[in-house]
Amino acid sequence: MPEPRPIPTLCTGIPEFDVTLRGGLPRHRLHLVEGMPGAGKTTFALRFLLEGATNGERCLYVTLSETAEELAASAASHGWSLEGIDVFELVPAEAEIENQQTVLYPAEAEFGQTMQMITGHIEATRPERVVIDSLAELRLLAQDSLPYRRQLLALKRFLQGRRITTMVLDDLTGGRGEADLHSLVHGVISLEQIERNYGASRRRLRIAKMRGSDYQSGWHDFALTTGEVLVFPSLIAEEHKEQPNHDAISSGVAGLDKVLGGGLDRGTTTMLVGPSGAGKSSIALHYAMAAVGRGEHAAYFSFDETFETLSRRAAALGLPVVEAVEAGELDWRRANPSRLSPGEFVWQVRREVEDRQAAVVVIDSLNSYLGTMPEEQSLVLQMHELLTYLNNKGVVTILILAQQGVVGDVQNPVDLSFLSDAVVLLRFFEAAGEVRKAISVVKKRTGVHELSIREYRLFPRGMEVGPPLMDLRGVLTGVPTHVGPQEQLLGSESQGAG
Asked: Is 126 domain-assigned?
């Protein structure tokens, strides 16, 4: 038997959506775009037609609910012009006030007349791309499911016979017949708008069906911005396997690298765990800036602090963060989870890795990423997929997790240690009348590491890590106590910087 020919596709004008379609929308087929009002169906359809007009194709928008003026205003809000798109404004006679009747209304006749007007205009203009907006009005005209399905089946054959690629929109307000409609069309694209408890609403889509074609299943976040429809394909880490080298990278602080058995290995994830102010972000920043010093690119995603705060702290540590950001060597991003969807965040990380070859990625902090989006049920799973992807790409990933409390019984807000290849524990302890800081490595999957606990401090010249503290007790309990001689401690003449 001859091998089946692949179905030809066309670009939708939304590049990332074409990625989820594994190339584009199948040509000469009837596709349903469904979603409640406000989900983005009209914007989606306009982008589809504008792409066709740009390519010199004849495009038709059949509107049964909005006027041509309203449609033009909607396009203008995105900075688009409908020039090159034929807008066929079709208001069913039933909707005209002067045609309203109080006794009987020939619904099936009116429905058939409306369908004839649509097919007649298509026959006259011979478009290559068509949008029909929306099926809700046609469903109301038909009143009965049998003539509705019969006419849509005839419309499907009519469009296929003329090799037209068509999108039909449905706002799901009819309350019946959706399942039957799914079986009739070639493709089904579902759009959804989710209102959060706080912050911007989240939009997502899924390809429920695409007959005869491969596609990426599951939900994909998307956003409507001025002039663009941005789709963020869900990440499949197994599709990004590489053979990275696993050599260790240095932080530029000899004592810190020694505690970690030579540094952090490429293609691994390290979690810095400790109470607020222990220096987690500063340690992560040392690794990011050391990468910049080696001529590599680094990315820092901050959910907690502003760039002004970070730059001031970096200056206190002698790290030229502002210069690195201005030169494009370090990319710093303020991630606002009340406006950001999980899919968009993952896509931003991917762009840093795939487009700018980031060697180090810092996520600061997991607390804010997980805690500010409580309605998201799959964030840990998404984070696991992201970290697997980063490991496959040979990236050194640093996660920051702030523990609840400062001293005493500090606790992890959530146990995510299973996500990490290495876990670095930071603690405060009291000695010689001062608050001091201790560092230890409690886990490293990829090699040996020190079992000792060392004191460290942050100061204007950078970071200093002292010798092992043989007489420090209770680090793992959260209440460390130094019982040895004061000579084991680092000098205290400089003020610390957290």
From this structure: yes
| Cβ contact 214:8 at 8 Å | no
Instruction: Write down the pTM of the prediction.
Output: 0.86
Nearest CA to 26 out of 161, 179, 188 is that of 188
Query: What is the rounded CA–CA span in Å between residue 284 and residue 253?
Result: 12
**CA 138 → CA 93, 154, 187, 199, 454, distances in Å?**
12, 14, 19, 36, 74
Last residue of a domain, one of 215, 234, 253: 234
Instruction: Express each pLDDT in 342-382 by its tens digit.
Output: 999 999 999 999 999 999 999 998 888 886 666 556 788 88
Who contacts 456 (Cβ-Cβ below 8 Å, separation ≥6)?
255, 256, 279, 437, 438, 439, 463, 464, 465, 466, 490
202 has a pLDDT exceeding 70:
yes
Domain around 110: 9-234
| Residues ≥6 apart with Cβ < 8 Å to 140 | 94, 174
Residue-wise pLDDT tens digits, 393-411: 999 999 999 887 555 555 5
Spatial distance between the Cα atoms of 220 and 55, rounded to a whole number of angstroms: 27
- In the block, tokens 């590489």 appear at 242
Output the pLDDT for position 409.
52
Q: Which of 119, 124, 108 is nearest to 62 (CA)?
A: 119
Q: To the nearest 5 percent, what fractions of the chain are helix, strand and coil?
A: 35, 25, 40
Statement to judge: residues 38 and 111 lie in one domain:
yes
Two structure tokens written together for 224: 């409507």
Nearest C-alpha neighbor of 223 from the set 214, 232, 215, 212: 232
Give the CATH number for residue 210.
3.40.50.300
Which tokens sit at 64? Answer: 């049964």
So what's the pLDDT on residue 172?
A: 87
